[in-house]
Amino acid sequence: MLKGVPRNARLLIGARAARSVGQGALVVDFALYLHALHWSALNIGVLYSVSLLVGALATLLVGPLSDHFGAKGFLLGYEGVQLVAASIALSTAQPDWLTLAAILGAFGRGANGGAGPFAPAEQSWMSRSVASEQWGKIFHFNTSIGLFGMAGGATLATLPGILAGVLPGAEAYRPLFLIVLLGSLICLLFLHAAEESPVDAASAEQSEQVQTAPPAVRKPIWQVLLTFGTINALNSLGIGMVGPLMAYWFHLRFGVGPAAIGGAMALAFVSAAFMSLIGLRLTRRFGLVGTVLRMRLLGLVLLLVLPFSPFFWLAMLIFIARGALNQGSIGSRQALFLGLVDEDRRGLAATVNSLSVQAPRAIGPMIAALFFQSEMLITPFLIAGVLQGAYLYFFQRFFRNE
Q1: Based on C-alpha coordinates, what's the Rg of the chain?
Q2: What sign does the dihedral 50-337-395-213 (CA atoms) show?
Q3: What distance lies between CA 251 and its chain's CA centroid?
Q4: Residue 68 contacts by C-beta under 8 Å, 6 or more apart in sequence?
Q5: Residues 249 and 242: beta-carbon distance below 8 Å
Q6: Residue 163: closest CA among 176, 149, 177, 152
Q7: Residue 341: which pLDDT band, with cuts at 50, 70 and 90?
Q8: Residue 375 carries which DSSP code?
Q9: Any idea which of 41-55, 168-182, 266-280 has the lowest mean pLDDT?
Q10: Averaged over 136-147, what is the pLDDT?
Protein backbone atom coordinates (compact mmCIF):
# COMPACT_ATOMS: atom_id res chain seq x y z
CA MET A 1 0.00 0.00 0.00
CA LEU A 2 2.86 2.39 0.83
CA LYS A 3 5.10 1.37 -2.06
CA GLY A 4 6.59 4.50 -3.61
CA VAL A 5 5.23 6.79 -0.86
CA PRO A 6 7.79 9.43 0.22
CA ARG A 7 9.42 9.22 3.65
CA ASN A 8 7.67 12.34 4.95
CA ALA A 9 4.24 10.89 4.26
CA ARG A 10 5.24 7.69 6.06
CA LEU A 11 6.34 9.67 9.11
CA LEU A 12 3.09 11.66 9.17
CA ILE A 13 1.12 8.42 8.98
CA GLY A 14 3.21 7.04 11.85
CA ALA A 15 2.44 10.13 13.94
CA ARG A 16 -1.24 9.68 13.22
CA ALA A 17 -1.10 6.06 14.39
CA ALA A 18 0.54 7.04 17.69
CA ARG A 19 -1.88 9.91 18.29
CA SER A 20 -4.98 7.86 17.52
CA VAL A 21 -4.57 5.34 20.35
CA GLY A 22 -5.15 7.89 23.11
CA GLN A 23 -8.01 9.42 21.15
CA GLY A 24 -9.70 6.03 20.86
CA ALA A 25 -9.45 5.38 24.59
CA LEU A 26 -10.97 8.74 25.49
CA VAL A 27 -13.75 8.57 22.87
CA VAL A 28 -15.07 5.62 24.85
CA ASP A 29 -14.25 6.65 28.40
CA PHE A 30 -13.98 10.41 28.83
CA ALA A 31 -17.72 11.11 29.10
CA LEU A 32 -18.06 8.04 31.32
CA TYR A 33 -15.23 9.41 33.48
CA LEU A 34 -17.05 12.71 33.88
CA HIS A 35 -20.25 10.81 34.70
CA ALA A 36 -18.34 8.87 37.37
CA LEU A 37 -17.19 12.22 38.76
CA HIS A 38 -20.91 13.12 39.06
CA TRP A 39 -21.00 15.66 36.24
CA SER A 40 -24.52 16.18 34.88
CA ALA A 41 -25.44 15.37 31.29
CA LEU A 42 -25.78 19.08 30.52
CA ASN A 43 -22.37 19.92 31.98
CA ILE A 44 -20.78 17.13 29.96
CA GLY A 45 -22.46 18.36 26.78
CA VAL A 46 -21.44 21.97 27.42
CA LEU A 47 -17.80 20.93 27.96
CA TYR A 48 -17.76 19.02 24.67
CA SER A 49 -19.36 21.98 22.87
CA VAL A 50 -16.91 24.51 24.30
CA SER A 51 -14.00 22.25 23.43
CA LEU A 52 -15.21 21.92 19.84
CA LEU A 53 -15.79 25.67 19.57
CA VAL A 54 -12.29 26.51 20.81
CA GLY A 55 -10.91 24.03 18.30
CA ALA A 56 -12.89 25.66 15.51
CA LEU A 57 -11.53 29.10 16.40
CA ALA A 58 -7.97 27.77 16.47
CA THR A 59 -8.53 26.24 13.03
CA LEU A 60 -9.19 29.70 11.60
CA LEU A 61 -5.57 30.63 12.21
CA VAL A 62 -3.65 27.44 11.64
CA GLY A 63 -4.45 26.59 8.01
CA PRO A 64 -3.64 29.91 6.33
CA LEU A 65 -0.55 30.41 8.51
CA SER A 66 0.71 26.94 7.64
CA ASP A 67 0.64 27.94 3.95
CA HIS A 68 3.13 30.70 4.74
CA PHE A 69 5.21 29.33 7.62
CA GLY A 70 5.00 25.58 7.09
CA ALA A 71 3.13 22.92 9.01
CA LYS A 72 5.89 21.29 11.05
CA GLY A 73 6.15 23.93 13.77
CA PHE A 74 2.38 23.98 14.30
CA LEU A 75 2.17 20.20 14.67
CA LEU A 76 5.11 20.08 17.07
CA GLY A 77 3.40 22.78 19.12
CA TYR A 78 0.15 20.83 19.10
CA GLU A 79 1.83 17.75 20.53
CA GLY A 80 3.46 19.91 23.19
CA VAL A 81 0.01 21.16 24.22
CA GLN A 82 -1.23 17.56 24.32
CA LEU A 83 1.58 16.66 26.71
CA VAL A 84 0.58 19.48 29.05
CA ALA A 85 -3.13 18.59 28.89
CA ALA A 86 -2.53 14.90 29.53
CA SER A 87 -0.21 15.69 32.45
CA ILE A 88 -2.87 17.88 34.08
CA ALA A 89 -5.62 15.27 33.68
CA LEU A 90 -3.33 12.54 34.94
CA SER A 91 -2.57 14.47 38.12
CA THR A 92 -5.94 15.95 39.14
CA ALA A 93 -9.72 15.59 38.77
CA GLN A 94 -10.42 19.08 40.14
CA PRO A 95 -13.18 20.45 37.82
CA ASP A 96 -11.47 23.69 36.78
CA TRP A 97 -8.18 22.02 35.92
CA LEU A 98 -9.87 19.08 34.25
CA THR A 99 -11.98 21.45 32.15
CA LEU A 100 -8.85 23.30 31.02
CA ALA A 101 -7.10 20.05 30.17
CA ALA A 102 -10.15 18.75 28.28
CA ILE A 103 -10.39 21.88 26.16
CA LEU A 104 -6.66 21.99 25.40
CA GLY A 105 -6.45 18.28 24.70
CA ALA A 106 -9.80 17.89 22.94
CA PHE A 107 -10.48 14.92 25.19
CA GLY A 108 -13.25 12.57 24.14
CA ARG A 109 -13.88 14.13 20.76
CA GLY A 110 -11.80 11.77 18.66
CA ALA A 111 -10.36 12.68 15.27
CA ASN A 112 -9.27 9.31 13.89
CA GLY A 113 -5.70 10.25 14.76
CA GLY A 114 -5.92 13.74 13.27
CA ALA A 115 -4.34 16.75 14.93
CA GLY A 116 -7.56 18.46 16.03
CA PRO A 117 -7.56 22.18 15.18
CA PHE A 118 -4.10 21.66 13.67
CA ALA A 119 -5.47 19.17 11.15
CA PRO A 120 -5.39 21.76 8.32
CA ALA A 121 -1.61 21.99 8.68
CA GLU A 122 -1.36 18.20 8.79
CA GLN A 123 -3.54 17.70 5.69
CA SER A 124 -1.74 20.45 3.78
CA TRP A 125 1.64 18.90 4.61
CA MET A 126 0.43 15.46 3.58
CA SER A 127 -0.93 16.79 0.28
CA ARG A 128 2.44 18.40 -0.48
CA SER A 129 4.26 15.16 0.33
CA VAL A 130 2.68 13.17 -2.49
CA ALA A 131 1.40 13.94 -5.98
CA SER A 132 -2.32 14.63 -6.39
CA GLU A 133 -2.77 11.38 -8.33
CA GLN A 134 -2.00 9.53 -5.09
CA TRP A 135 -4.33 11.52 -2.83
CA GLY A 136 -7.19 9.03 -2.96
CA LYS A 137 -4.80 6.21 -2.03
CA ILE A 138 -2.88 8.09 0.67
CA PHE A 139 -5.83 9.77 2.41
CA HIS A 140 -7.76 6.51 2.54
CA PHE A 141 -4.75 4.65 3.94
CA ASN A 142 -3.99 7.46 6.38
CA THR A 143 -7.59 7.32 7.63
CA SER A 144 -7.40 3.54 7.98
CA ILE A 145 -4.24 3.72 10.08
CA GLY A 146 -5.91 6.25 12.39
CA LEU A 147 -8.97 4.04 12.73
CA PHE A 148 -6.89 0.98 13.57
CA GLY A 149 -5.18 3.07 16.26
CA MET A 150 -8.56 4.22 17.56
CA ALA A 151 -9.56 0.55 17.77
CA GLY A 152 -6.48 -0.18 19.86
CA GLY A 153 -7.35 2.75 22.13
CA ALA A 154 -10.96 1.62 22.45
CA THR A 155 -9.69 -1.79 23.55
CA LEU A 156 -7.54 -0.10 26.21
CA ALA A 157 -10.67 1.77 27.32
CA THR A 158 -11.72 -1.44 29.05
CA LEU A 159 -8.95 -0.79 31.64
CA PRO A 160 -11.21 1.06 34.12
CA GLY A 161 -13.27 -2.08 34.51
CA ILE A 162 -10.12 -4.09 35.17
CA LEU A 163 -8.68 -1.51 37.58
CA ALA A 164 -11.94 -1.01 39.48
CA GLY A 165 -10.81 -3.40 42.17
CA VAL A 166 -7.47 -1.60 42.57
CA LEU A 167 -8.33 2.09 42.19
CA PRO A 168 -11.46 3.54 43.83
CA GLY A 169 -14.35 4.91 41.75
CA ALA A 170 -13.42 7.41 39.07
CA GLU A 171 -9.71 6.98 39.84
CA ALA A 172 -9.76 3.85 37.66
CA TYR A 173 -10.10 6.11 34.60
CA ARG A 174 -7.04 8.27 35.28
CA PRO A 175 -4.36 5.91 33.83
CA LEU A 176 -5.94 6.43 30.39
CA PHE A 177 -4.33 9.86 30.22
CA LEU A 178 -0.93 8.19 30.40
CA ILE A 179 -1.77 6.62 27.01
CA VAL A 180 -2.36 10.11 25.59
CA LEU A 181 0.91 11.37 27.06
CA LEU A 182 2.98 8.50 25.64
CA GLY A 183 1.31 8.87 22.25
CA SER A 184 2.27 12.55 22.09
CA LEU A 185 5.89 11.73 22.91
CA ILE A 186 6.01 9.24 20.03
CA CYS A 187 4.34 11.80 17.72
CA LEU A 188 7.04 14.33 18.56
CA LEU A 189 9.72 11.84 17.48
CA PHE A 190 8.01 11.17 14.14
CA LEU A 191 7.33 14.84 13.42
CA HIS A 192 10.84 15.91 14.37
CA ALA A 193 12.24 13.41 11.85
CA ALA A 194 9.98 14.64 9.02
CA GLU A 195 10.94 17.45 6.65
CA GLU A 196 8.77 19.75 4.58
CA SER A 197 9.76 19.51 0.94
CA PRO A 198 8.05 19.80 -2.46
CA VAL A 199 6.51 16.67 -3.89
CA ASP A 200 8.20 14.63 -6.59
CA ALA A 201 5.32 14.35 -9.03
CA ALA A 202 7.18 11.73 -11.04
CA SER A 203 6.74 9.25 -8.20
CA ALA A 204 2.96 9.24 -8.59
CA GLU A 205 1.20 6.16 -9.84
CA GLN A 206 -0.17 7.46 -13.08
CA SER A 207 -2.58 4.55 -13.43
CA GLU A 208 -4.72 6.01 -10.64
CA GLN A 209 -4.94 9.51 -12.08
CA VAL A 210 -8.35 9.32 -13.74
CA GLN A 211 -10.11 7.38 -11.04
CA THR A 212 -8.82 8.89 -7.78
CA ALA A 213 -7.66 12.42 -8.58
CA PRO A 214 -10.15 15.06 -7.39
CA PRO A 215 -12.41 16.52 -10.11
CA ALA A 216 -11.53 19.99 -11.36
CA VAL A 217 -13.81 22.93 -10.55
CA ARG A 218 -14.24 26.14 -12.50
CA LYS A 219 -15.92 28.61 -10.11
CA PRO A 220 -14.09 31.39 -8.17
CA ILE A 221 -12.18 30.01 -5.21
CA TRP A 222 -14.13 31.74 -2.43
CA GLN A 223 -17.47 30.75 -3.94
CA VAL A 224 -16.36 27.15 -4.16
CA LEU A 225 -14.97 26.98 -0.62
CA LEU A 226 -17.88 28.75 1.03
CA THR A 227 -20.50 26.75 -0.85
CA PHE A 228 -18.88 23.42 -0.09
CA GLY A 229 -18.15 24.46 3.49
CA THR A 230 -21.82 25.32 4.03
CA ILE A 231 -22.89 21.95 2.65
CA ASN A 232 -20.35 20.25 4.90
CA ALA A 233 -21.74 22.11 7.92
CA LEU A 234 -25.09 20.31 7.56
CA ASN A 235 -23.34 16.99 7.87
CA SER A 236 -21.20 18.18 10.77
CA LEU A 237 -24.12 19.45 12.82
CA GLY A 238 -25.76 16.05 12.41
CA ILE A 239 -22.56 14.32 13.49
CA GLY A 240 -22.32 16.58 16.53
CA MET A 241 -25.80 15.51 17.60
CA VAL A 242 -24.91 11.81 17.85
CA GLY A 243 -21.16 11.31 17.48
CA PRO A 244 -19.23 12.72 20.48
CA LEU A 245 -21.62 11.34 23.12
CA MET A 246 -22.36 7.90 21.65
CA ALA A 247 -20.59 6.01 24.45
CA TYR A 248 -22.59 8.04 26.97
CA TRP A 249 -25.80 7.30 25.02
CA PHE A 250 -25.11 3.55 25.17
CA HIS A 251 -24.62 3.87 28.93
CA LEU A 252 -27.87 5.79 29.40
CA ARG A 253 -29.91 3.63 27.01
CA PHE A 254 -28.70 0.17 28.02
CA GLY A 255 -26.87 0.67 31.33
CA VAL A 256 -23.61 -0.83 30.03
CA GLY A 257 -20.12 0.17 31.22
CA PRO A 258 -16.69 0.78 29.65
CA ALA A 259 -15.84 -2.90 29.23
CA ALA A 260 -18.80 -3.61 26.92
CA ILE A 261 -18.69 -0.25 25.16
CA GLY A 262 -14.91 -0.27 24.67
CA GLY A 263 -14.79 -3.73 23.16
CA ALA A 264 -17.69 -3.01 20.82
CA MET A 265 -16.27 0.35 19.72
CA ALA A 266 -12.90 -1.27 19.05
CA LEU A 267 -14.66 -3.58 16.61
CA ALA A 268 -16.43 -0.55 15.11
CA PHE A 269 -13.12 1.24 14.46
CA VAL A 270 -11.53 -1.89 12.97
CA SER A 271 -14.52 -2.29 10.64
CA ALA A 272 -14.27 1.36 9.63
CA ALA A 273 -10.54 0.97 8.93
CA PHE A 274 -11.15 -1.95 6.58
CA MET A 275 -14.03 -0.06 4.96
CA SER A 276 -11.70 2.86 4.28
CA LEU A 277 -9.39 0.50 2.40
CA ILE A 278 -12.38 -0.91 0.53
CA GLY A 279 -13.46 2.67 -0.17
CA LEU A 280 -10.21 3.18 -2.07
CA ARG A 281 -11.17 0.34 -4.38
CA LEU A 282 -14.65 1.79 -4.77
CA THR A 283 -13.17 5.10 -5.95
CA ARG A 284 -11.65 3.29 -8.90
CA ARG A 285 -15.12 2.13 -9.95
CA PHE A 286 -17.41 4.99 -8.87
CA GLY A 287 -15.00 7.92 -8.48
CA LEU A 288 -14.54 9.99 -5.31
CA VAL A 289 -18.00 11.60 -5.42
CA GLY A 290 -19.85 8.39 -6.23
CA THR A 291 -18.09 6.54 -3.42
CA VAL A 292 -19.00 9.18 -0.82
CA LEU A 293 -22.65 9.25 -1.90
CA ARG A 294 -23.13 5.48 -1.83
CA MET A 295 -21.43 4.92 1.50
CA ARG A 296 -23.05 7.86 3.27
CA LEU A 297 -26.55 7.03 2.01
CA LEU A 298 -26.36 3.55 3.51
CA GLY A 299 -24.98 5.07 6.70
CA LEU A 300 -27.94 7.45 6.86
CA VAL A 301 -30.43 4.57 6.75
CA LEU A 302 -28.64 2.85 9.63
CA LEU A 303 -28.53 6.09 11.64
CA LEU A 304 -32.32 6.31 11.55
CA VAL A 305 -32.73 2.66 12.57
CA LEU A 306 -30.17 2.68 15.42
CA PRO A 307 -32.09 4.43 18.25
CA PHE A 308 -35.07 2.07 17.90
CA SER A 309 -33.00 -1.04 18.63
CA PRO A 310 -34.31 -2.85 21.73
CA PHE A 311 -31.03 -4.63 22.55
CA PHE A 312 -27.47 -3.42 23.15
CA TRP A 313 -25.90 -6.05 20.89
CA LEU A 314 -28.21 -5.15 18.00
CA ALA A 315 -27.70 -1.40 18.47
CA MET A 316 -23.94 -1.92 18.53
CA LEU A 317 -24.00 -4.01 15.35
CA ILE A 318 -25.91 -1.21 13.60
CA PHE A 319 -23.47 1.35 15.05
CA ILE A 320 -20.50 -0.67 13.78
CA ALA A 321 -21.92 -0.91 10.25
CA ARG A 322 -22.88 2.77 10.17
CA GLY A 323 -19.49 3.88 11.48
CA ALA A 324 -17.68 1.76 8.91
CA LEU A 325 -19.66 3.32 6.06
CA ASN A 326 -19.36 6.92 7.28
CA GLN A 327 -15.74 6.89 8.35
CA GLY A 328 -14.71 4.77 5.41
CA SER A 329 -15.48 7.72 3.12
CA ILE A 330 -13.32 10.25 5.03
CA GLY A 331 -10.31 9.80 2.75
CA SER A 332 -12.41 10.52 -0.35
CA ARG A 333 -13.93 13.63 1.22
CA GLN A 334 -10.52 15.00 2.23
CA ALA A 335 -9.11 14.42 -1.24
CA LEU A 336 -12.15 16.11 -2.79
CA PHE A 337 -11.88 19.23 -0.68
CA LEU A 338 -8.13 19.70 -1.09
CA GLY A 339 -8.56 19.21 -4.83
CA LEU A 340 -10.75 22.31 -5.06
CA VAL A 341 -7.75 24.67 -4.85
CA ASP A 342 -4.21 25.16 -6.11
CA GLU A 343 -1.21 23.95 -4.11
CA ASP A 344 -0.50 27.30 -2.44
CA ARG A 345 -4.01 27.44 -0.97
CA ARG A 346 -4.36 23.91 0.37
CA GLY A 347 -3.88 25.10 3.92
CA LEU A 348 -6.77 27.53 3.37
CA ALA A 349 -8.93 24.77 1.88
CA ALA A 350 -8.12 22.43 4.76
CA THR A 351 -8.99 25.24 7.17
CA VAL A 352 -12.41 25.83 5.61
CA ASN A 353 -13.00 22.09 5.58
CA SER A 354 -12.03 21.67 9.24
CA LEU A 355 -13.94 24.77 10.32
CA SER A 356 -17.07 23.61 8.52
CA VAL A 357 -16.75 20.35 10.47
CA GLN A 358 -15.80 21.66 13.91
CA ALA A 359 -17.96 24.76 14.30
CA PRO A 360 -21.33 23.03 13.69
CA ARG A 361 -20.18 20.00 15.70
CA ALA A 362 -19.64 22.35 18.63
CA ILE A 363 -23.38 22.95 18.84
CA GLY A 364 -24.42 19.31 18.62
CA PRO A 365 -23.30 17.88 22.00
CA MET A 366 -25.01 20.61 23.99
CA ILE A 367 -28.30 20.09 22.11
CA ALA A 368 -28.02 16.31 22.49
CA ALA A 369 -27.27 16.66 26.22
CA LEU A 370 -30.45 18.68 26.71
CA PHE A 371 -32.43 15.85 25.13
CA PHE A 372 -30.55 13.26 27.21
CA GLN A 373 -31.29 15.15 30.40
CA SER A 374 -34.97 15.15 29.43
CA GLU A 375 -34.75 11.38 28.76
CA MET A 376 -35.40 11.93 25.04
CA LEU A 377 -32.84 9.51 23.67
CA ILE A 378 -34.28 9.07 20.17
CA THR A 379 -34.86 12.68 19.09
CA PRO A 380 -31.18 13.60 18.44
CA PHE A 381 -30.90 10.75 15.92
CA LEU A 382 -33.96 11.90 14.00
CA ILE A 383 -32.70 15.48 13.79
CA ALA A 384 -29.27 14.23 12.72
CA GLY A 385 -30.88 12.10 10.02
CA VAL A 386 -32.67 15.09 8.51
CA LEU A 387 -29.46 17.15 8.50
CA GLN A 388 -27.36 14.41 6.92
CA GLY A 389 -30.03 13.74 4.32
CA ALA A 390 -29.90 17.41 3.33
CA TYR A 391 -26.11 17.20 3.19
CA LEU A 392 -26.19 14.31 0.71
CA TYR A 393 -28.71 16.10 -1.50
CA PHE A 394 -26.65 19.29 -1.77
CA PHE A 395 -23.37 17.37 -1.99
CA GLN A 396 -24.41 15.58 -5.17
CA ARG A 397 -25.82 18.79 -6.64
CA PHE A 398 -22.58 20.65 -5.98
CA PHE A 399 -20.44 18.22 -7.95
CA ARG A 400 -23.08 17.59 -10.59
CA ASN A 401 -23.03 21.30 -11.44
CA GLU A 402 -19.23 21.58 -11.58
Answers
A1: 20
A2: negative
A3: 22
A4: none
A5: yes
A6: 176
A7: low
A8: T
A9: 266-280
A10: 80
